[in-house]
Design goal:
By secondary structure, this protein is an alpha/beta fold. The protein folds into three domains: 379 residues, Glycosidases (TIM Barrel), CATH 3.20.20.80; 206 residues, Class I glutamine amidotransferase (GATase) domain (Rossmann fold); 57 residues, Sandwich (Immunoglobulin-like).
Length: 683
C-alpha cells in the first residue's frame, strides 16, 4: 500500500506578496450600501484576502439552471479595486431549498434511520448522484465566469467536508458502499475473510447482501464499521476531487484548497486528502473550557503543517473572540486573539483568516465573533484586529520559511476510528487522550514536533513517539522496525500495534506487530478501575524518577530482550514492568505500558530524548512558547509567545520584527501575554 502522506508534494503558492490576512466575507447577508463600507474598513484593518461565496448557492442559482452573478460581479469588482484578493468558494456546502424540495430522498440518514431535515447546511447524502450533478453544474458556471480574474488567487472547494454529515446510512449510500467494497475486495469470499464474518454467522454470499452498519441489537462487526468509515471518507473525497477537477480544467493557474479541521474532526483521513489539495488549509477553534487550550491550538497547527509536508499552510478560519456553539462561549481576553494568531503563524501558517469579516445579524451564528463586531469600530476587538493586521504586515519576510522538528508523533485516522468502535478492554482507551498527554509534555519541554503517518519515511527524525497506533498494517510495522534498526529511537505507548487493517488481532501476544522491536510480550491486558492508581518504582537508572504513579492501564508484561525501567509496586500488575527499554539493531525502543503521572512521563521523555540526541531548550519557563522558523537564506525567526502573567527575558541578538526591525543586542523582553519575533542572521 502506498504511504498516505503528502511528503514530496510540491505545494503551490498563493499569489500574495505578504502574510494573508482576512476572513470569510458574506456580503449577501447585507444590503449593497454596506459593501463599500466593508471594503474601506478592510483596508483600514490590513485585510488582503477574503473567502467569498461559501454559502451563496441559493443567491447564485435561485432556480434550477438559472444563474445570477451580477451581485457577485459587483462585490468582486469592489474588492479588486481596493487591492484585496479573493479565495473564491464553490457554494456547495449549502444546497438551496429548491434542490431539497425537488429531491427529498437526498436528505442524509443517521445510523438509527432518522432522516435529517432541511434548515441547516450540509443537508445532502455524499453518495447522491443528484447532489453531485447539481454541485458540478454550479461549480462549472462559477469557474467559467471567474477563471483568470486577477483578484481570484485561490479556489476554495466546498466548506468543512464531513463536519456535520460524515456518514450517511440511506439506500443510496448502501449501494455506493457495496460498489466500494467490490472494488476493494474483488470477491465476497475475500471480504468474508477480511471481516472475520464467520463470527456470529455473518457470512455473505453476495455483495448485494451487505448493508451499512446501522444501529443493531448489539455491536456491529467492527471490520465492517471500520470499512464504512473509510468508504465515507472516500465518498466525501470524491465530491471534492470532482469539483476540484472542474475548477482546474477551467482555471489551471490558480491553486485549489478545501478547509480541513485538523485536530478538531476525525471524520476524514486527512493524510489521503492532503495529497489532493494545492494549498493545505485548516480551521481551528479553541475549546473555551479547556485549561491551557493554547496547547491544543499548537497541536492542530503542527498537525496541519505535517499534512502540508512541512510547507507553509493557511489558517482558513478561527475566531476573534467567542464562538456560538460551545456550552459556555467565553470571550477572548485582551491580547489573546493575537497570541492565538501568532501561535499558528509560528508553527508554519502563512495566512491568518477568521470566520468571519462582519458579525451576522441573523441566523445560527449571529453570536459568533467576527473581525467587525456588532458594536462596530469603537471597540477593543476592532482595535486588536487592526493591530494584528499591522503586525502581520511587519512579518512579511517570514513568509515561506519552514519549521524544523527532530521529533515526530505518529497520527493515524484509521487507528482513531478503530479505537472509537465498541467492545474494547476499557472505556479509558482513547486515541486523543494519549496523543494529547505526550504532546503536552513535549510542548511544555519546548520540543517542536511533526506528526507522521505510520508508513511515512521516518529517517529525518531522531525520536518517533507512537502513543495511539492501534492499527498496525504489516508495512507500517516494518517501517517502524527499520527506523529503529537503522539507529532511530522509538517510544510506544500501550494499545499500540494491536490489530491489522481489518481490526483483527495480531496473534502471539501484545503488542502484536511490534513485539520484536519493543522486546516485550504481553499475555493479558489489566485495565485499572476508575480512580485506581498504582505506584511506580525505578528498576534502573535509565529514568531519573525514583517513584511515580500511574492510572488507567496496566499489563501482564514479560521481558523478551528489553530491560525493565519502571515497575508496578502494587495493583493488578504488581511486580510487572511498567516501562521498558530495548536495544534493537542500531537503535532503541521504549515501551510505556501504563499512563504515568505527568512528572514521571516527563522523566521518561527526557530519557528517550537523551537516547535520541534531542536536547530540549533550557531556561524556558512553563507557559512560554518558543518556536523557530527558518528561511531559505539561513535567517532564523524565533517566535516567542508568553502565555504567563510574568514578563520573560529572551537572550539573543537580531532584529525585533514587531518593533520595526529594531536591533536587539543581548536581551529582548517578552511582556506577560505578549509575543515577540526575533530575526537572527539573513538580511
Amino acid at each position: 500500500m502506498a504511504v498516505e502522506s503528502p511528503e514530496g508534494r510540491a505545494a503551490r503558492r498563493i499569489n500574495l506578496d505578504a502574510i494573508a490576512y482576512g476572513g470569510d466575507y458574506n456580503p449577501e447577508q447585507w444590503p449593497e450600501e454596506v459593501w463599500e463600507e466593508d471594503v474601506a474598513l478592510m483596508r483600514e484593518a490590513g485585510v488582503n484576502l477574503v473567502s467569498l461565496g461559501i454559502f451563496s448557492w441559493a443567491r447564485l442559482e435561485p432556480r434550477p439552471g438559472e444563474f445570477d452573478f451580477g451581485w457577485l460581479d459587483r462585490v468582486i469588482g469592489l474588492l479588486h479595486e481596493a487591492g484585496i484578493r479573493i479565495d473564491l468558494a464553490t457554494p456547495t456546502a449549502a444546497a438551496p431549498a429548491w434542490f431539497l424540495a425537488a429531491n427529498p430522498h437526498v436528505r442524509p440518514v443517521t445510523a438509527d434511520g432518522t432522516v435529517l431535515g432541511y434548515g441547516a447546511r450540509q443537508t445532502y447524502c455524499p453518495s447522491s448522484p443528484e447532489y453531485a450533478e447539481a454541485a458540478a453544474r454550479i461549480t462549472s458556471e462559477l469557474a467559467r465566469r471567474y477563471a483568470g480574474h486577477p483578484a481570484v488567487v485561490l479556489w476554495h472547494i466546498h466548506n468543512e467536508y464531513g463536519c456535520h454529515v460524515s456518514r450517511c446510512y440511506c439506500e443510496q449510500s448502501v449501494l455506493a458502499f457495496r460498489e466500494w467494497l467490490a472494488e476493494r475486495y474483488k470477491t465476497v469470499d475475500t471480504l468474508n475473510s477480511a471481516w472475520g464474518s464467520a463470527f456470529w454467522g455473518q457470512l455473505y454470499s453476495s455483495f448485494d447482501e451487505i448493508d451499512a452498519p446501522r444501529l443493531a441489537p448489539t455491536g456491529v462487526n467492527p471490520a465492517q464499521e471500520l470499512d464504512f468509515r473509510r468508504f465515507s471518507s472516500d465518498a466525501l473525497l470524491r465530491l471534492y476531487t470532482r469539483e476540484r477537477d472542474i475548477v482546474r480544467a477551467l482555471d489551471p493557474d490558480v491553486p485549489v484548497t478545501t478547509n480541513f479541521m485538523a485536530g478538531l474532526s476525525d471524520n476524514v483521513d486527512l493524510w489521503r486528502w492532503a495529497r489532493e489539495v494545492d494549498v493545505v488549509s485548516t480551521d481551528h477553534y479553541l475549546t473555551a473550557a479547556a485549561p491551557d487550550n493554547h496547547i491544543g491550538l499548537s497541536l492542530s497547527a503542527d498537525l496541519t503543517r505535517s499534512l502540508a509536508g512541512g510547507q507553509p499552510w493557511l489558517l482558513m478560519e478561527h475566531s476573534t473572540s467567542a464562538v456560538n456553539w460551545q456550552p459556555r462561549n467565553v470571550a477572548k481576553r485582551p491580547g489573546e486573539m493575537a497570541r492565538n494568531s501568532l501561535a499558528h503563524f509560528a508553527r508554519g501558517a502563512d495566512g491568518i483568516l477568521f470566520f468571519q469579516w462582519r458579525a451576522s445579524r441573523a441566523g445560527a451564528e449571529k453570536y459568533h465573533s467576527a473581525m467587525l463586531p456588532h458594536a462596530g469600530t469603537d471597540t477593543r476587538l476592532w482595535r486588536e484586529v487592526t493591530a494584528l493586521g499591522a503586525d502581520l504586515a511587519a512579518l512579511r519576510e517570514v513568509r515561506g520559511s519552514i519549521v524544523p522538528a527532530e521529533v515526530a508523533i505518529v497520527w493515524d485516522w484509521e487507528s482513531r476510528w478503530g479505537m472509537e468502535l465498541g467492545f474494547k478492554p476499557s472505556v479509558d482507551l482513547d486515541f486523543r487522550e494519549r496523543i494529547d498527554a505526550y504532546y503536552e509534555r513535549l510542548w511544555r519541554a519546548g520540543v517542536t514536533v511533526d506528526f507522521v503517518h505510520p508508513g511515512a519515511d521516518l529517517g529525518g527524525y531522531k525520536l518517533v513517539v507512537a502513543p495511539s497506533m492501534y492499527v498496525a498494517r504489516t508495512a507500517w510495522a516494518e517501517s517502524l522496525r527499520a527506523y529503529v534498526r537503522d539507529g532511530g529511537t522509538l517510544l510506544a505507548s500501550y494499545y499500540t500495534g494491536i490489530v491489522d487493517e481489518n481490526d483483527a488481532v495480531h496473534l502471539g501476544g501484545y503488542p502484536g506487530a511490534l513485539r520484536d522491536v519493543l522486546g516485550v510480550r504481553v499475555e493479558e491486558f489489566l485495565p485499572l478501575l476508575k480512580g485506581q492508581q498504582t505506584t511506580l518504582a525505578a528498576e534502573s537508572a535509565a529514568v531519573q524518577a525514583a517513584t511515580g504513579s500511574a492510572t488507567r492501564w496496566a499489563e501482564d508484561l514479560a521481558l523478551d530482550g528489553a530491560a525493565a525501567v519502571l515497575r508496578h509496586e502494587d495493583g493488578p500488575a504488581a511486580g510487572k514492568p511498567a516501562v521498558t527499554r530495548h536495544t534493537f539493531g542500531e537503535g532503541t525502543a521504549w515501551y510505556v505500558a501504563t499512563a504515568p503521572d505527568p512528572g514521571t512521563l516527563d522523566a521518561i521523555l527526557r530519557a528517550a530524548c537523551a537516547d535520541a540526541g534531542v536536547q530540549p531548550p533550557s531556561g524556558l519557563p512553563d507557559g512560554v512558547e518558543r518556536v523557530q522558523r527558518r528561511g531559505a537564506d539561513g535567517t532564523v525567526y524565533e517566535v516567542v509567545i508568553n502565555h504567563t502573567g510574568t514578563d520573560f527575558v529572551l537572550s539573543g541578538t537580531g532584529r525585533d520584527l514587531l518593533a520595526g526591525g529594531t536591533p536587539v543586542d543581548s536581551e529582548l523582553t517578552v511582556p506577560a501575554g505578549g509575543v515577540r519575533v526575533l530575526a537572527v542572521g539573513g538580511l
